[in-house]
Amino acid sequence: MKLNAVDERLLKEVAQLHTVPSGAYNIRKNGQLLERNSLPGINIFSKKDRSGIDVIVDPDIVNQSVHIPVILSEGGLDDLVYNTFEIGENSEVLIVAGCGIHNDSALQSKHDGIHEFYLRKGSKMRYVEKHYGEGEGTGERVLNPVTKIHIEEGATAELELVQIGGIDHTKRVTEVYIGERGRLVMNERLLTHKSQQAVSEVTVDLQGADSSGEVLSRSVAQEKSLQIFRISLIGRSRCKGHVACDSIIMDQADVRSQPELCAKNALAELTHEAAIGKLAGDQIIKLMTFGLSEEEAIRVLLDGYLK
Amino acid sequence: MISLENVSLKFEEEKGIVHILNDISITFEPGKLYVITGPNGGGKTSVAKVMMGIHNPSSGKIILDDQDITSCSISERAFKGVRYAFQNPPRFKGIDVKWFLKLANEAITEADISLILKKIGLCPEEYLERTVDAGLSGGEMKRMEIASVLLSKAKVAILDEPEAGVDLWGFEQLLNLIIQSHHKAIKRTTIIISHSEKFLKAADEIIVVANGKIQVRGNYAEIHPLIQEGINCRWRKVCLEEEKEDEIKCGR
Question: B131 to chain A: nearest residue by CA?
């Protein structure tokens, strides 16, 4: 696999990859397949009708990982992929996705990843998706991921969705459909600055009896950036759902948070909490009493908050 | 050694100027353990915050080891060895106990952190990875706050109501730790703001602050009779009389 220094840095940022991963992987660079590795029980195929891959994890495959990072290192790219994941019954896998864009040009670089997951009975998936942008060019770095997850009976999905700077525009759409005794835990972390704009639309549809869904979103909006969160919980059965949407607003930023609860069954228990506020002055002062400067204290607070 | 020289503190509020500290002068000697006590709202915490640089005095000077630190920032004072444990410590999302205590003193090892946790009555295995947020009780936060000062290389350690929120069993442990730590640290000035008689007994000197002034100083034997006769009533009475004088002066 031929990787230059920029590629290596992007892979490290989005997928914590310092070398070729040990598990299954599919690395995509500038709209093309760079390298792929399937494993016994985990097969990765190119789609025949459009751009993207099918990742098939057989039943009862445990303690395995699949890395599918995407890197864009040129301006003017408009990359669209459709990836489908089939997680077999009682399998337990870690899937690390993510997209890193390096754009030194005046042209826009864009990647739209349309991901659809089918978690079969009793399976467990931990999904980590990180977005990262860099480069000196004036061309925008744009990411618009769409994630649809179907959680069958007794299956669990844990999502960690992180975007810490460098992306000018993003619209993330996440839809999760949860069956009987299915479970979702979603953690979202977002940092925007300059004039960046980020929209996150999440719908969690609790369809099956005793299903549960928890969405925890933390964000920091700096300078003139804009963040919009629309998070909707739908309870169609005896189920539990909770949304916690917490944002720190700084400078001239604009943050809008719209949690929505929709109960269609008297046994649905849905709760939400949303808070937007500035960094607490007493926290900054406390850290300054340790000898940190005000700037260092703010950095530590934001690092901890978004950890 | 830290001194306040003619320090006054006032804030401008909607209803007018509020005088918090009125021309306070005092020197805290190295190696001594002081307790500042007095009625609520009398100015005890303000004395501490002026020393730490959280409040800037309206007039007067703060001197640390013959150096005027009045214009120094909070961070600069911390570097010079002034440390302060808050009365109501703030909580931090995402910062765990290990990280928090490392921020207080980056030179300490994980073994040091475990040791101090044991000394404040918290099991290291259980607490090292816990975040310093709403998951900790008020008493646990308070112990963590005190630990953050005691494990630093403070020349001047200021502890604001260390007993607040701590259970009876934990309090004895904390009391012993604070006193031991004071004696172990050579030439450290320890200043405790407290209403606890146990701290008063342990003090080399007790300073009663009320109505923004030092009302009386002395050792336990000298101050104890005042407590017996109801120190709050006594100083409140002083305050009321002064307020009356002010009203007369202002023609109200």
Answer: A304
The predicted-structure confidence for B74-93, as pLDDT tens digits, reads as follows: 999 999 999 999 999 999 99
Cα distance between residue A239 and residue A270, in whole Å: 8
Residue A273, strand partner residues? A244
Fold of B2-88+153-250: Rossmann fold (3.40.50)
Query: pLDDT at position B184, please?
Result: 92
Half-sphere exposure of A58 toward its Cβ, with a 13 Å CA cutoff? 9
Query: What radius of gyration do chain A's Cα atoms show?
Result: 20
Residue A128 β-bridge partners: A96, A160
Residue ranges of chain B whose CB lies within 8 Å of a chain A CB: 52, 54, 73-75, 78-79, 83-84, 86, 89-95, 99, 103-105, 148, 152
| Residue B221: HSE in the Cβ half-sphere, 13 Å Cα cutoff | 0
The residues pairing with A215 across neighbouring beta strands, listed in sequence order, are A186, A243
User: Which one-letter amino acid corresponds to residue B201?
Assistant: K
Check whether A203 has a pLDDT greater than 70: yes
B159 contacts on A by Cβ (under 8 Å): none
Partner residue facing B92 (CB), from A291, A292, A301? A301
Q: Which tens digit of pLDDT belongs to each residue from B38-66?
A: 999 999 999 999 999 999 999 999 999 99
Closest approach of B155 to chain A, Cα-based (Å): 13
User: Is-contact B17 B28, C-beta < 8 A?
Assistant: no
Q: Are B92 and A283 an interchain contact pair (Cβ–Cβ within 8 Å)?
A: yes
| Domain ranges within chain B, ordered by starting residue | 2-88+153-250
* Best to test chain B binding among A160, A189, A290 (most B CBs inside 10 Å): A290
Q: Which residue has the tokens 């005092």?
A: B26
Can you read off the two tokens belonging to residue B27? 């020197």
Q: Where are the beta strands (DSSP E) in A38-155?
A: 42-46, 53-57, 64-67, 70-72, 78-87, 92-96, 99-102, 109-119, 124-134, 141-143, 146-151
Note the pLDDT tens digit of each residue in B225-250: 887 666 555 555 555 566 566 555 55
* Residues B200, B201, B206: CA angle, nearest 5 degrees: 40
- Alpha-helical (H) ranges within A16-163 are none
